[in-house]
Design a protein that fits this description.
The protein is mainly beta. The chain has one domain. It is 11% helix and 49% strand. A 15-stranded mixed sheet has the order 8-7-6-5-4-3-2-1-15-14-13-12-11-10-9. The protein is globular, with a radius of gyration of 18 Å.
Length: 274
């Protein structure tokens, strides 16, 4: 009985981590065709190094964090640009505290083509590791490890597809109110391809720890669900509200260590809601 809620929670966190790859960096002509041309359109050419933190809040209490970084490695042309997201969320499911951790990384060459990626999810009940490397022929060779089972396969990943797991960031700084952009993504857990749609809805003032901030409100549609996000004029994600009732807010790294470590309130089980 306990296994299903934990699996469901793990999938939710995986989806959540992916959303952050939908919010940052500089705009490109793809915005005007309403479709992003993969990582080549995702990355701002003058901003390749960044490090951002978000705290995850439920019922007014912090239950974890997500950290997204972009870095450059001049020693390896096949891993020249490194996207990485680490998400840690502690849930209480049916009275049991559960730490869910995900790590996702995409490695790009100097032409902004993804050459390899890594993804791992640990729930304390289920561990999943997925790694993929572009073959000489073009398709990616994948190794999927789940528990004691290892699978090897080869799949096509087009260049206009970005890895769905990174608190991914998109260039929405120049996205005007009423504009829309679509992003093709690969889910590293299901290995399915889906499309996320981002719309700029309105200019609003939101309040963060440092005070009121002018922001643009976005609406994100992904796999039948909707979430809202707020970004500043530089395209930095400030806040996100998810369909699961979680709120994510931008914070400083030191703020994560100031949070109360007491366990969060128990989550309502599926049976209790029905």
């Amino acid at each position: 009985m306990r296994r299903k809620p934990v699996i469901r929670a793990a999938v939710v966190v995986t989806w959540l981590a992916a959303t952050f790859w939908l919010i940052r960096y500089e705009a490109y002509p793809e915005w005007f065709t309403h479709s992003l041309a993969g990582y080549d359109g995702l990355i701002g050419r003058d901003t390749l190094i960044s490090d951002s933190w978000m705290k995850v809040i439920e019922n007014g209490k912090s239950i974890g964090y997500s950290r997204t970084s972009v870095d450059v490695n001049d020693d390896d042309p096949q891993r020249h640009i490194i996207f990485e997201n680490r998400t840690h969320v502690r849930l209480t499911v049916m009275g049991h505290s559960q730490l869910i951790q995900t790590v996702a990384a995409a490695y790009l060459d100097m032409t902004y083509r993804m050459q390899s990626f890594e993804f791992s999810m640990n729930t304390g009940v289920i561990d999943v590791d997925v790694s993929g490397t572009r073959s000489a022929e073009g398709p990616f060779d994948l190794t999927v490890v789940s528990g004691n089972t290892t699978r090897n396969m080869r799949i096509e990943i087009p260049d206009d597809v970005v890895l769905h797991s990174p608190m991914t960031a998109l260039a929405v700084r120049n996205l005007k109110i009423g504009d829309m952009i679509q992003v093709k993504t690969l889910n590293p857990v299901t290995l399915s391809r889906d499309t996320a749609t981002v719309r700029a809805m309105a200019h609003e003032t939101i309040t963060l720890d440092e005070g009121p901030v002018e922001a643009t409100r976005l609406e994100i549609e992904y796999m039948g669900s909707r979430s809202r996000a707020w970004i500043d004029e530089a395209g930095q994600l400030l806040r996100q509200e998810t369909p699961m009732g979680w709120t994510l807010e931008k914070c400083r790294p030191d703020q994560m260590f100031e949070e109360d470590d007491s366990p969060p309130a128990p989550r309502e089980s599926t049976q209790e809601r029905s």
